[in-house]
Amino acid sequence: NAGVTQTPKFRILKIGQSMTLQCTQDMNHNYMYWYRQDPGMGLKLIYYSVGAGITDKGEVPNGYNVSRSTTEDFPLRLELAAPSQTSVYFCASSYSTSGRPDTQYFGPGTRLTVL
Amino acid sequence: GQNIDQPTEMTATEGAIVQINCTYQTSGFNGLFWYQQHAGEAPTFLSYNVLDGLEEKGRFSSFLSRSKGYSYLLLKELQMKDSASYLCAALDSNYQLIWGAGTKLIIKP
Q1: Which site among A40, A111, B66, B83 is 20 to 30 Å from B42 CA-CA?
Q2: pLDDT band for position B1 (50/70/90)?
């Protein structure tokens, strides 16, 4: 099992550009999450999904969009990149059978800089 | 509001014991997680407590007091590889994780 994989690992964007951060998991987890982590700060939840076709906003969704067409993939779309979106982005997944999420497993992260 | 507090940084000596404290205020509570994060890497799971008391797992132990909104992570026989940030996260009533900013642990020889 590869676990949770993310691409790219690093990216520099210009203000106003768009991009998609890819996330794939091969553990058959139903829950998937996108977080951002700014220096010296805790992880902030951007969006999450409890299964294919279902997505919900987290704490900081503005400027981002997601989709979940399959169990394995959960891409994060940035439209009109802004310097405030410079951060490290982590994708995570977990398994839940009764609405209570289990331990989250994280991908290696994408380091994004917007100039 | 929801809040997790933990010290920003701690220093300890190789071979010693260190306790990292975490206090939480959340709307509802469904358990507390500790994760380890080495610099430039992803967080990895260390422990989960939902009932009061101590959970021991090798050199690492985690304690929870629900009535006090308090947890700690205890690391024994410290090794240089334990130098990392330790993240405390509480699961709220909506089963969302509320994360602390992390405690950077520096181990000195």
Answers
A1: B66
A2: confident
